[in-house]
């Protein structure tokens, strides 16, 4: 089964406030929303990588927006009230585990206080009907067991990043129950797995690390080759976010809860297996080594149960791990060849949508 398709009729002309639009997932979501005909306003810091998807895909041509700090509560309120959106999609975050060890206070300030600022701004904007806050699969109390985590499982987090995302989940549940439900605002949270795709140049992520090393004919260094993760192409969870945001507007509090968007079992693989699969696709020499000593703690085993999204939203992952890796590499090659990456990204979105009809 192909799963539910995103409704173009719903999104055409819909006013959407998108935080984190300068990032990897936010950039792809901004492109998709503009392709659906939505009126999008982006709010985020300037891109912190070079290259960056925001520039490569020329997102400034597709949507309005500004570079501003989610921690600046007053500025955020003014921007939200000026745009007067109906839907708010919150992706702005400090998204890296290893960075959270280096800057724990900043991680909490961005992820927790930033979300608090957004929810308080929503309370002061009478046009908002739906809010989707993107957290992480790492928000669960990881017991290193083989069973996939369900939305009702305990929250936790060893590292500051994971803990901050668990805090965001608790924050959202409280603001939903204490303030937003009575105002008729439907608030949901979304937890996705390890997302891959073209245009991600973040530090300390496997696919960007692979591409940087092998592009430069260098040896890739792996920290935890045996770590098991749920890998998925970026368009799979974004498809889920769009379906969920649509449901929040149309069905309200009935879907205002936490949701997992993870891959099928075939998308669950070790870091080492992903590297080997990429090496099989790489046109040149692909070398790697392992350096595990002295590394900070990261989860060893983590998978998600997405039954709720399948049954209640009609969502299903479409691109398994082999296709996700192939699509990522194709995007990277197109970028290296100097192609129009806005157009190329739109072609990949259209191809994904075509498989969901």
Automatic annotation (TrEMBL):
<feature type="domain" description="NAD(P)-binding">
    <location>
        <begin position="18"/>
        <end position="327"/>
    </location>
</feature>
<dbReference type="InterPro" id="IPR036291">
    <property type="entry name" value="NAD(P)-bd_dom_sf"/>
</dbReference>
<protein>
    <submittedName>
        <fullName>CDP-glucose 4,6-dehydratase</fullName>
        <ecNumber>4.2.1.45</ecNumber>
    </submittedName>
</protein>
<dbReference type="InterPro" id="IPR016040">
    <property type="entry name" value="NAD(P)-bd_dom"/>
</dbReference>
<dbReference type="GO" id="GO:0047733">
    <property type="term" value="F:CDP-glucose 4,6-dehydratase activity"/>
</dbReference>
<dbReference type="InterPro" id="IPR013445">
    <property type="entry name" value="CDP_4_6_deHydtase"/>
</dbReference>
<dbReference type="Pfam" id="PF16363">
    <property type="entry name" value="GDP_Man_Dehyd"/>
</dbReference>
<keyword id="KW-0456">Lyase</keyword>
